[in-house]
Design a protein that fits this description.
heterodimer; A: 581 residues; alpha/beta; Rossmann fold; Aminopeptidase; 3 domains; eight-stranded mixed sheet; six-stranded mixed sheet; 21 helices; 39% helix; globular; B: 78 residues; mainly alpha; Non-ribosomal Peptide Synthetase Peptidyl Carrier Protein, Chain A
């Protein structure tokens, strides 16, 4: 960037001694009422002093109008998320020349444009192809995700701009429409345009800042929150559950909260219950209270007992087969939040405040819960895991693995060159930890590049059985090097593990890849990580040797021993057309 | 609100927005952090704090804390 670089000077320096995870949870809980009030005030936000360590998040802003009024206040929401937003700026550049000279690659590219600047330069039909060409250029210069934020789109042109940008890998178009609709005439402030280089009003800057730090940036740069684990008393309702359940009141605020949680579940987020109560009392409560939108069966994992919440949350993570860092724990008791955070530092915490509107807004904006789009796999996730107890029962009852698979009526679908599933492939490389052989965390842009490379092929694996459709659960990335097909990555979702299908899934995918890149040898790249022992054990068993920390293992002979006809499983293979662009 | 309260309130706003404590005599000329972007942020924050809206023609004239105070007293006195 040719212009000044503003490495985060937005937050006051931290000079106090390090604080514990528990203290951080308490401090974050105190910020919630300011950050998630209906109309946060610039002054109140800037008064918040960060007392905990932050992880840098480098954002490169390519702009033709000022972004500083947003960045200044966004720093507080970023800090709540645990990030130090380090923003670097381009010149005010209508031409979008993308002269990049930063020493470090950014985590996020933000293209921040006021389209009114182009009114005299382009007709509306000319604008979309020009912008698309410029964004394609940025894509070729950077592999970081790109967020495109446009204001002042000519009437009827916004949709065309969005459509032309959809073809660019790893790019998402920010929708400022809801903010503009909410603020009406207050969205713009012509006074600001005259004196500070943007037409956006103060309320609009505050709204954009919250969206950026709580929604857009987290969803583009970090794995999502997969589960919300909830306390009961004073969290899902007002009052304390007694044996007769009469002290419990569903206020309008708690009703909205429960409705929002149910909507999250429908979008593929697991709900879990962690409560210090008697389980029969809790079950009775959900049975008797027909006014509760949430039912007992909506919770994919429950831990109702008098033990520690930390232990309960460990059980929830195990039951849902997810990491603690993918769980958001919600409780009205700040002491409980602190105690859990101290015991499980990687878990996310949210305070269920007495003002339920603040809690609801904090939940709506919790970093990692909001997604740009929900994939088909997201919507089947909850039902898929709900089928697990029945699968376990069938496995226990079956005389052998073949009978088990036959009873499930399993089918696999392998798709090669699966360009339409780019977002899901990206999710699989980012989110799978246990069955991830080489821990290559490809960006969407990198995956798109591999899809267009003649020496590379990618395959996704879809799995279903008579109990549920698991969706796309696996990814295999291969490249041809001389006489060898090198498997650069194998990533399989935890939901697909335990059905004794890993051999068949991977061997079927590799065979499909070999059809497009014929090679006499196959080698798997592998690397040891903190949690990928299951993937390494699989490869170690396949090749019949222990694995070094990192390396490549020849596996063509071992793979040839895996025969599809030995499995009572239907396997379909689809070869999409390979395209260079 | 009397003039002392207004000045104290403005000092608080200016200190928060400019990122360090300032005195009542702070001006755009003697405060390096007070650039054109900060100027608009000061306007936004003072408007929030005092529940007012400055007219466009007044904004370039607000070049000191005292200038803000004077405008508030002249145009927004209770």
């Amino acid at each position: 960037m040719p212009n000044r670089k503003m490495a985060s000077e937005l937050l006051p320096a931290i000079s106090s001694p390090p604080i514990s995870s528990g203290e951080i949870a308490l401090a974050r809980a105190e910020w919630q009422s300011t950050l998630f009030s209906e109309w946060p005030a610039r002054l109140d936000l800037l008064k918040l002093q960060v007392t905990w360590p932050l992880t840098p998040l480098r954002i490169r802003v390519h702009r033709n109008h000022a972004f500083e009024h947003v960045a200044d206040v966004a720093s507080r929401w970023f800090a709540w998320w645990g990030r130090d937003a380090q923003v670097s700026y381009s010149d005010y550049d209508d031409s979008l020349s993308f002269r990049l000279d930063d020493s470090q690659d950014p985590h996020l590219e933000l293209v921040w444009l006021d389209l009114q600047h182009y009114a005299q330069k382009f007709t509306p039909p000319e604008l979309a192809p020009w912008l698309s060409e410029r964004l394609t250029t940025l894509r070729s210069l950077s592999s970081a995700p790109i967020a495109l934020a446009l204001i002042g789109a000519p009437p009827d042109a916004h949709e065309a701009l969005v459509a032309s940008s959809r073809t660019i890998a790893g790019l998402r178009v920010v929708d400022l429409g809801p903010i503009q609709q909410e603020l009406g005439q207050r969205f713009f402030d012509e006074r600001a345009a005259k004196f500070s280089g943007t037409r956006l009003s103060n309320p609009a800057c505050l709204r954009v800042a919250r969206e950026l730090a709580c929604r857009w940036a987290p969803s583009l740069t970090t794995p999502p929150i997969k589960a919300v684990a909830l306390d009961l008393d004073h969290t899902l309702y007002e009052g304390v559950l007694g044996e007769d359940g009469t002290q419990v009141r569903l206020t309008p605020g708690h009703l909205s909260l429960q409705q929002h949680l149910l909507a999250l579940r429908e979008k593929g987020v697991f709900l879990a219950l962690t409560s210090r109560n008697e389980e029969p009392d809790v079950r009775r409560l959900f049975t008797e209270r027909s006014d509760f939108p949430l039912r007992w069966e909506h919770f994919s994992a429950t831990s109702v007992n008098w033990g520690s919440k930390g232990e309960s949350l460990r059980q929830v993570a195990q039951s849902l087969r997810i990491g603690l860092d993918a769980i958001l724990f919600v409780d009205d008791n700040p002491g409980e939040l602190a105690s859990v955070a101290a015991e499980l530092p990687s878990i996310n915490t949210l305070h269920a405040a007495s003002d339920t509107s603040v809690t609801l807004r904090a939940l709506q904006y919790y970093p990692g819960l909001w997604r740009w789009e929900r994939s088909a796999t997201d919507t089947v996730r909850v039902a898929d895991l709900d089928a697990e107890p029945e699968r376990a029962r069938l496995a226990a009852a079956a005389a052998n693995p073949e009978e088990y698979l036959r009873s499930l009526r399993v089918s696999l679908r392998i798709e090669v060159n699966p360009r339409p599933h780019l977002a899901r492939m990206h999710e699989l490389t980012q989110k799978t930890n246990q069955f991830n052989l080489n821990l290559e965390r490809f960006s969407e842009a990198e995956l798109a590049e591999l899809l267009a490379s003649p020496d590379h092929r990618l395959a996704v694996i879809a799995l279903s059985d008579r109990l549920s459709d698991s969706g796309l659960v696996g990814l295999v990335v291969a490249s041809r090097e001389a006489e060898t097909l090198v498997i650069r990555e194998v990533a399989i979702s935890c939901r697909a593990l335990g059905r004794r299908l890993e051999d068949l899934m991977i061997a079927s995918a590799v065979r499909a890849l070999l059809q497009e890149l014929p090679s006499p040898r196959v080698e798997f790249l592998h690397r040891s990580g903190p949690r990928n022992a299951p993937a390494r054990q699989w490869l170690s068993q396949l090749v019949g040797a222990s694995l070094p920390e990192q390396g490549r293992s020849p596996a063509h002979t071992s793979l040839s021993r895996i025969r599809a006809q030995d499995y009572p499983v239907e396997v379909a293979v689809i070869h999409h057309e390979f395209k260079r662009d | 609100m009397n003039s002392n309260e207004t000045e104290r309130g403005l000092q608080e706003v200016f200190s928060v927005v400019l990122g360090h404590p300032v005195g009542p005599d702070v001006t755009r000329a003697n405060e390096p952090a007070w650039d054109s972007l900060k100027h608009m942020q000061l306007v936004f924050a003072v408007e929030e704090r005092f529940g007012v809206q400055f007219p466009e023609e007044a904004i370039p004239q607000l070049n000191s804390l005292g200038g803000f105070a004077e405008h508030l007293h002249q145009h927004h006195a209770p």
